[in-house]
DNA sequence: TTTTACTACACGAACGATCGTGCTGTCAAC
DNA sequence: GTTGACAGCACGATCGTTCGTGTAGTAAAA
């Protein structure tokens, strides 16, 4: 029922409200990533969109509702920019690496002005109880679980050593991307991405079943080579 | 001239202003760690201290000045809680590990309500140019450099493999603590500290010169054992 | 010793701006 | 003619900041 009417509305230029709502969220999500979800202000947002405060406010009903919608919008963007591309890759270690690569790339191309949206808002809200915090925590947990799940799947496929602790691996991989986001946004340090990727590949190599080493090596070379200068690890080009 | 009168003043309970200032900063630093440096409000702070806004304001002259002072105070606390204890240990890998351990412990005992002060404020200000951002970046950089410097020193002492990239190691160690802070404050996940420490020890073991393995093992056992259950790595107790 | 002068510190009141949030009205689309 | 999207206006609260005043305590002058 809903689907049919939706199509009609869409055709007739209806869902005007929904269209405006999306435009609001699009702007809001970028302000929030730079100024924080609490720093995001209804007046400021209305100005930027040449709307009245009250007109904008009517779409949400409260600031908290707006914040929740913004987090949801950020999730959509994250899925489109990071998860979807990675999910096109075959399952296992290839997809696991793709998830991290896409994630790093998304940080690097500054999809959000203030770096990865979820890291910023997670730290902003971690000691501020409420629905917003709960939503952020749930989404963050979900993404972390996705990483861990893919690592586990790689174990099932025999690509990663089954003696490996998948949760520990996910923890470390997640940490490396987070650090890259931090370093890049605080120091404008572009090398952070290479450093993160070096660490990621190292973690995967350590846990890889013997036959997988070649596969990972290829992926590494295909992407970006860390100039070959700072590679003091053993057995480089035997 | 100034020094003499200062002594007299100090003896007579002078530096009253300085004492008040410190009390203000003590309260401010905790509010700021939970609500953010921008969420820290002069009115709220004055209420908490049963002072007038104007009386409090007079100590700083502007909000930015207050924020700078708060960051400085946070630095003092960080030095006292983390750096100083670690610096009592002998130089090299022992001190390096102590720095990370003290850092994790300080996160775990919630010295600041909102987790590690500098991670929170770094992400809050990373896309907000100004003196505050510059100060935070400088202090963060300095701590990261200290870690890297100690790793390098461990190389000089022959404790760490000289082929190791110290900057890369510092990046990864820093990432692990940062991740623990994130996970603990967002998920109340206490296991995060074990996970971080597991990763840290693994990084150090990998880079350690042969004779050092025993030393690290001792330190690990002395602190806290991860219940021995999730240790799927090779050569545990040969 | 008393008076005078000055400084440090804190207060209350008020400024203009902006915050989030309502209420009412208008105009267009169904 | 009902409904949904918006604007206009206003509210109480709070923001950072300024101003004038009061109270101690100290230093120099009497």
Topology diagram in text:
The structure is a homodimer of 238-residue chains.
Chain A: H1 2-11, H2 16-35, H3 42-48, H4 53-57, H5 63-87, H6 93-108, H7 117-125, H8 131-156, H9 166-187, H10 191-207, H11 212-223
Helix pairs in contact in A: 2-5, 5-6, 5-8, 6-8, 6-9, 6-10, 7-8, 8-9, 9-10
The structure holds a DNA duplex (30 and 30 nucleotides).
Description of the molecule:
2 copies of one chain form a homodimer. By secondary structure, the first copy, chain A, is mostly helical. The first copy, chain A, has a domain at 68-224: Orthogonal Bundle (Tetracycline Repressor, domain 2). The first copy, chain A, is 71% helix and 0% strand. The first copy, chain A, contains 11 helices and no strands. Chain A has helices at residues 2-11, 16-35, 42-48, 53-57, 63-87, 93-108, 117-125, 131-156, 166-187, 191-207, 212-223. In chain A, helix 6 (93-108) runs parallel beside helix 9, helix 7 packs across helix 8 and helix 9 runs antiparallel to helix 10 (191-207). The N and C termini of chain A lie far apart (64 Å). Mean pLDDT of chain A is 85; it is low at 1-14 and 218-238. Chains A and B meet through helix 2, helix 7, helix 8, helix 9 and helix 10 of A and helix 2, helix 7, helix 8, helix 9 and helix 10 of B. The structure holds a DNA duplex (30 and 30 nucleotides).
Short summary:
The structure is a homodimer of 238-residue chains. Helices cover 71% and strands 0% of the residues of chain A. With 238 residues, chain A is an all-alpha fold.
Tell me the name of the CATH class of the domain at 68-224 in chain A. Mainly Alpha
Radius of gyration of chain A: 21 Å
Shape of chain A: elongated
Helix content class of chain A = over 70%
Low-confidence stretches of chain A: 1-14, 218-238
| Sheet/helix structural class of chain A | mainly alpha
Run of helices and strands of chain A:
HHHHHHHHHHH
Largest interface: A-B, 48 and 46 residues
Distance between the termini of chain A: 64 Å
- Oligomeric description of these chains: homodimer
- CATH superfamily grouping of the domain at 68-224 in chain A: Tetracycline Repressor, domain 2
How many beta-strand runs of chain A? Answer: 0
**Which strand-content bin applies to the residues of chain A?**
under 5%
Q: The CATH topology of the domain at 68-224 in chain A is what?
A: Tetracycline Repressor, domain 2
CATH hierarchy: architecture of the domain at 68-224 in chain A:
Orthogonal Bundle
Q: Note the total helix count of chain A.
A: 11
């Amino acid at each position: 029922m809903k689907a049919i009417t939706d199509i009609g509305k869409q055709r007739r230029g209806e869902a005007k409200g929904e269209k405006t709502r999306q435009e609001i969220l699009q702007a809001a999500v970028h302000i929030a990533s730079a100024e924080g979800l609490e720093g995001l202000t209804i007046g400021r947002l209305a100005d930027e969109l040449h709307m009245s405060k009250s007109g904008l406010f009517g779409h949400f009903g409260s600031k908290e509702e707006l914040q929740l919608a913004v987090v949801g919008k950020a999730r959509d963007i994250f899925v489109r920019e990071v998860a979807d591309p990675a999910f096109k890759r075959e399952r296992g270690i290839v997809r696991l690496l793709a998830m991290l690569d896409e994630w790093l790339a998304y940080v690097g191309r500054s999809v959000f002005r203030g770096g990865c949206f979820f890291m910023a808002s997670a730290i902003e809200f971690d000691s501020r109880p409420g629905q917003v915090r709960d939503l952020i925590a749930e989404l963050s947990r979900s993404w972390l679980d996705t990483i861990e799940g893919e690592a586990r799947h790689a174990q099932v496929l025999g690509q990663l050593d089954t003696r490996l602790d998948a949760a520990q691996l996910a923890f470390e991989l997640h940490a490396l991307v987070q650090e890259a986001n931090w370093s890049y946004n605080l120091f404008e340090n572009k090398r952070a991405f290479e450093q993160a990727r070096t660490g990621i590949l190292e973690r995967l190599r350590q846990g890889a079943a013997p036959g997988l080493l070649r596969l990972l090596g290829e992926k590494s070379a295909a992407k970006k080579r860390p100039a070959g200068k700072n590679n003091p690890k053993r057995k480089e080009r035997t």
